Amino acid sequence: MDELRRVVGEKADEFICDCSNWVKEYCPLDSWNWAKMDKMAKNRLYDKIRGKYDLPEKVVGVDVTKALSFQCSMLYKHWRFRLKEQHFRDKSITDAIHSRPNNIEVGPWTWLVCDYWNCEKKKHISKVNTENKLKQTETPAYGARSTARIFHDLVKLDGSSEPHETQPDPLYITLFEKTKKHKGRSGWEPNAEKDYEALKRLHEKEVEKHGEDTLSVKDAYMEVFKQKSGYVKGLGPGARPPKKCRVDGESNEARTSLSLQIQKLKDEAAAREASLSSEIETLKASNDELKTSNEELIASNDEVKATVSRINIEAIKREKKLRDDMMKMFEQMRYVTLRSSFYKY
């Protein structure tokens, strides 16, 4: 493998053939995509590949497991595409289900036909991809060989294991010419000649500025063509731009500044928490005082009610006694008056 995460070298065809067969053996078809594939299935696949091929952990700084994942994901995608073209395209759902290959189980095949290929979202994506494919006017200038293999052959011919060149014609210019200029035809692909001149100007600028051109193929392509949707244009689907990161000094400074800000926020949060806790305790104490005062007021009110009730009862009794006494007095006066009248006559 190379830094473009593609298979290159003398055993490339054998490696790809083996991986293609093992993908069909270990990877189930009823998965929405490679990213959602069962991890255990992928690990068994990687173990199978590593069991036959002595692969290092990294190649030119690229993690081999990630490169394997990319390569196998492409093979998985191509496998399902071929199945779709042979057994689903221009067929009814019933015919597609009955067109199941003998080496594929009923369950995964039914899911692939009914839930995946027949899904409205997937049909829309397929339509857009087909339209975009038809818009492409360029044809490979070097046959079916991938850009990665041409790149590998050029590096091998140069006798260098690193894609950094200082000769008048740097590797990135030679690679671009190999992949974009046809032999025995009208020459350059549409718009390719302008890009070729841009690479030439970049080379002259590097020599003028630094005295030599030490740009790698990836760096040169990224400078001229710019990255798009997470990949480097012109180098095939495997090339990825480096992740954005700061230089060490800026990174350490930013990290220190961020740590200080975080610590400051933590201290402010702790201070606010302590202040809030104090206010909560004060409110609790005030609430307890109000509760006690309210209870005392209720008790006092009950006592007042009892006193008023007792006074009312006593007043009623005294009033009744007074009435009774007055009635007795009136009776006595009446008796005395009547008696006096009797004795008079």
| Number of helices in the DSSP assignment | 11
Output the structural class.
mainly alpha
Order of helices and strands: HHEEHHHHHHHHEEH
Strand content: under 5%
Shape: elongated
> Low-confidence segments, ≥5 residues, pLDDT <50?
161-167
Question: Which strand order spans the largest sheet, edge to edge or round the barrel?
Answer: 1-2
- In total, the number of strands is 4
The overall pLDDT average reads: 80
Query: Percent helix among the residues?
Result: 55-70%
Largest sheet: 2 strands, antiparallel
Gap from first CA to last CA: 157 Å
Radius of gyration, whole Å:
48 Å
Assembly classification: single chain
Task: Give an overview in words.
The chain is mostly helical and 345 residues long. Among the domains are: 1-136, no CATH class; 143-244, no CATH class. It is built from eleven helices and four strands; from the N terminus they run H-H-E-E-H-H-H-H-H-H-H-H-E-E-H. The protein has helices at residues 12-26, 39-52, 64-87, 93-98, 106-117, 120-135, 147-158, 171-180, 192-210, 217-225, 248-344; strands at residues 58-59, 62-63, 227-228, 231-232. Strands 1-2 form a two-stranded antiparallel ribbon. Strands 3-4 form a two-stranded antiparallel sheet. Strand 1 and strand 2 (62-63) form a beta hairpin. Helix 1 packs antiparallel against helix 2, helix 1 packs across helix 3 and helix 7 (147-158) packs across helix 8 (171-180). The longest helix has 97 residues, at 248-344. The radius of gyration is 48 Å and the shape is elongated. The N and C termini lie far apart (157 Å). 16% of the residues are buried.
